[in-house]
Amino acid sequence: MGDVFHTFPALTDAMQNQPGLVVDWVVEEAFQEIPKWHPVVDQVYSIRLRQWRKHPIRFRQEIKAFFERVNQTHYDLVIDAQGLLKSAWVVSKIKEPIAGMDWGSAREKLASLFYQHKYPVAKHQHAISRLRELFARVLDYPLPAKETLDYHLATQAWQKLPQLADDYMVFLHGTTWDTKLWPEAYWIELLNRVVAQGKQVVLPWGNEEEKQRAKRIAKTVESDHTPSGIKAWVPNQKLDLNTMACCLKFAKAVVSVDTGLSHVAAALDVPMVVIYRVTDPDLVGALGNKVRYVVSPLAKHYLKSFAPGDEDESKRGIQVTDVCRALEGIASGKS
């Protein structure tokens, strides 16, 4: 999901510099709702690349039909925004000129061999900056300043979910690696602090494990002694991406671990604190004007398991007080 959102600012730059630009987008099926949030995107082709790679023989007819459909449209240019072998394979099946990063710039160097037009893009900068640079080189317009970051999502018609209070926050507690999780006791402490301030808290979930954790956290403010009488909201069913995005858009603030939905909130310009326990935000973190990071000393290590002593070290700098301080910083406009 992060790769999709990293592309939006580059699309905005291109739209502003290329009047009349129309873009079609090939995206993994799970994220097919997202590209249409940008006004320059017309057709979205949802692809089941993960299944195809696992079972190419089983899906050969589906693969053939997919590319026959895409190739019915003539394109002036195809851009590989991922720079991976899997994405390079996809664009190579589209019968138009292909552009992408060169050998020294692509995330997977061999991907560049599939492109007719190859461009150097500076490394060691955020993925959003790299894509903005790529699109500017490909479409031949001046590289915009980094501070002009604009996702430009068309959200004017979106509405707040009716079951939510006027003043609410969202806790994005679910993520892929166990080492990226924030301790459940910390979520409970933060929840109680937020509810005591009179705010409702939404605890969305994406699988059964996350649902049960959300219920355990929410239950801590369901007793009669809660001064505000406010209950946390755990949805009865998994929210689709459009509904989840509406939930994030109207939140007063979001607290998130390193997860795909943090990029959604950043793009929607929602005040947010993101907790980076074992991953580094500098290159692929959720990027937005109202985003603050709290980062542990082990953030650059990308640990999928903890060695002795690592677990305690990974909690340093991401305590509840650190998150609260960052939230206060957003509210006051301080970095």
Strand content: 5-15%
Structural class call reads: alpha/beta
> Rg to the nearest angstrom?
21 Å
CATH fold field value of the largest domain: Rossmann fold
- Please give the number of β-strands: 10
Q: What oligomeric state best describes the polypeptide chains here?
A: single chain
Query: How many helical stretches?
Result: 12
CATH architecture of the largest domain: 3-Layer(aba) Sandwich
What is the first-to-last residue Cα distance? Answer: 26 Å
H/E series, N to C? HEEHHEHEEHEHEHHEHEHEHH
Low-confidence stretches: none
Count of domains: 2
Estimate the helix proportion, in percent.
25-40%
Give the biggest sheet.
Answer: 5 strands, parallel
* Adjacency order of strands in the biggest sheet: 7-6-8-9-10
Query: What is the name of the CATH superfamily of the largest domain?
Result: Glycogen Phosphorylase B
Shape: globular
CATH class category name of the largest domain? Alpha Beta
Quick rundown:
This protein is of the alpha/beta class and 335 residues long. It has twelve helices and ten strands. The longest helix is centred in the first third of the chain and has 16 residues.
Task: Write a structural description.
The protein has 335 residues and is α/β, with parallel strands linked by helices. It folds into two domains: 2-148, Glycogen Phosphorylase B (Rossmann fold); 168-332, Glycogen Phosphorylase B (Rossmann fold, 3-Layer(aba) Sandwich), CATH 3.40.50. Helix content is 35%, strand content 13%. It has helices spanning 2-17, 49-54, 60-70, 85-92, 127-139, 184-196, 208-219, 241-249, 260-267, 281-284, 310-313, 320-332; strands at 23-28, 41-47, 78-79, 98-101, 117-119, 168-172, 200-202, 253-257, 272-276, 291-295. The strands form three sheets. The chain has a five-stranded parallel beta sheet, with helices on both faces. Strands 3-4-5 form a three-stranded parallel beta sheet, covered by helices on one side. Strand 3, helix 4 and strand 4 (98-101) form a beta-alpha-beta unit. Helix 1 (2-17) runs parallel beside helix 5 (127-139). The longest helix has 16 residues, at 2-17. The protein is globular, with a radius of gyration of 21 Å. The protein starts with a helix and ends with a helix.
